[in-house]
Amino acid sequence: MPTDTIVKVQEYKETLITKAETLITKRFPEKIVQLNELLATPMFNERNFIEVHQDLNIPVLAPVLVNKKCPEEDEAAEGNDNNDHPPTKRARKDVIVTGTPVLALPTGSVPCNKPLCEMITVVKPIIRKLVEDSNLLKMWISFMIPKIEDGNNFGVSIQEDTLAEIQTVESEAAAFFDQISRYFLSRAKVVSKVAKYPHIDDYRRAVVELDEKEYLSLWLVVCEVRNRYSSLHDIVIKNLEKLKKPRSSNTESLY
């Protein structure tokens, strides 16, 4: 392997270790304070469910009267009037009323929920930052793990437990992104039902309930991100000495 490549890899490791230590000692406390201040803003603290309600811009069409008597029944009734025989019973035919074909909405497009979109714009960078920070810490712990040896593995077990906790946080943060995308997909499906069946109020109420649920979920996501930063900072600071020096005899191979 070229010497230049080895030097670059070593520089990358040293830079990553420096960034991770700064992240733990300085950036994490700042992030916790920042998220607490965000949760105290009117967007997350004072907004109630009514403020996230939004008109769908889908009007209710005028009712259409359906004649349940089929033409064959009219002809049979006229025929029975011309003779003395009792009317012949016909099999009952139920008229099925389908939904309204939606080619275009007369009042224009159905907008996304604006208050929730504003919250999502704020929340998504926070989630992305947690994923990035978790990934950085994960690599930092991995570089700290010494080579496998017999005995004196208590510090290594602490590193492995911390690494597992960081990986869990990273997975949860990535799942928050999926939650946001699933909200838009679910809302689009319910709104399409409203467009097809505008006279059914339950579909309209389902959209309202879905928006309220997403508002609560976004608030909860910010709380969970703050809690994850707090827990990671706490567990790393408490075990920082063992994380950096899991074996006192292997000090030379840590960095």
Automatic annotation (TrEMBL):
It holds the Pfam family PA28_N. Keywords: Proteasome. The keyword Zinc does not apply. Residues 110-252 form the Proteasome activator PA28 C-terminal domain. Residues 73-92 are annotated as: Disordered. Residues 7-63 form the Proteasome activator PA28 N-terminal domain. Transmembrane segments: none annotated. One of its GO terms (molecular function) is endopeptidase activator activity. One of its GO terms (biological process) is regulation of G1/S transition of mitotic cell cycle. One of its GO terms (cellular component) is proteasome activator complex. It comes from the Eukaryota. Belongs to the PA28 family. This is Proteasome activator PA28 C-terminal domain-containing protein. It comes from Drosophila willistoni. The gene is Dwil\GK18337.
